[in-house]
């Protein structure tokens, strides 16, 4: 089995997965992991300094080679980065997950070359995922 990356490099994988599972953090878990609540949609002030509570808050990691992380006191190369969160009024779906989920669903069986999920179930799941934000908003209004 090979895995192809964006630049068309292939790497051999010595084991094939037998299952895939995804989960999402709960609101409490997100708040527990987060060091910063992002409340300002601006990256830097007029002087080019990171804004506290902004998108490039230094508590989430360093922005340039000269900075030191406020959270872990590490430099640009050593700081792994830290989580922040944005509290939204309504839940929204992550549009970057659409292609990942669709490719996962349409995965074929290695032996019989058939879909692991029937075609109508694939379409139903994909439709539900595309409209997840509307479903959640509707449930919240009830």
UniProtKB/TrEMBL annotation:
Domain RNA polymerase Rpb1: 19-126
Protein name: DNA-directed RNA polymerase
Record keywords, A-Z: DNA-directed RNA polymerase, Metal-binding, Nucleotidyltransferase, Transcription, Transferase, Zinc
Any matching Pfam family: RNA_pol_Rpb1_1
InterPro entries reported for this sequence: RNA_pol_Rpb1_1 (IPR007080), RNA_pol_Rpb1_clamp_domain (IPR044893), RPC1 (IPR015700)
EC number: 2.7.7.6
TM segment ranges: none
Single GO term (MF): DNA-directed RNA polymerase activity
Listed Gene3D superfamilies: RNA polymerase II, clamp domain (4.10.860.120)
Gene Ontology cellular component terms for the protein in this record: DNA-directed RNA polymerase complex
GO BP: DNA-templated transcription
Catalytic EC class: transferase
Organism: Hemiselmis tepida
């Amino acid at each position: 089995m090979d895995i192809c990356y964006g630049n068309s490099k292939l790497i051999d994988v010595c084991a094939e997965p037998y299952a895939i599972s995804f989960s999402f953090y709960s609101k409490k878990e997100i708040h527990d992991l987060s060091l910063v609540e992002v409340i300002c949609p601006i990256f830097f002030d007029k002087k080019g300094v990171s804004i506290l509570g902004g998108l490039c808050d230094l508590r989430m990691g360093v922005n340039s080679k000269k900075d030191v992380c406020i959270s872990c006191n590490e430099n640009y190369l050593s700081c792994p980065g830290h989580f922040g969160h944005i509290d939204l009024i309504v839940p929204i779906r992550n549009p970057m997950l659409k292609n990942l989920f669709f490719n996962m669903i349409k995965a074929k069986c290695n032996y019989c070359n058939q879909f692991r999920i029937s075609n109508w179930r694939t379409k139903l799941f994909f439709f539900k995922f595309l409209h997840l934000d509307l479903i959640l908003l509707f449930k919240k209004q009830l």
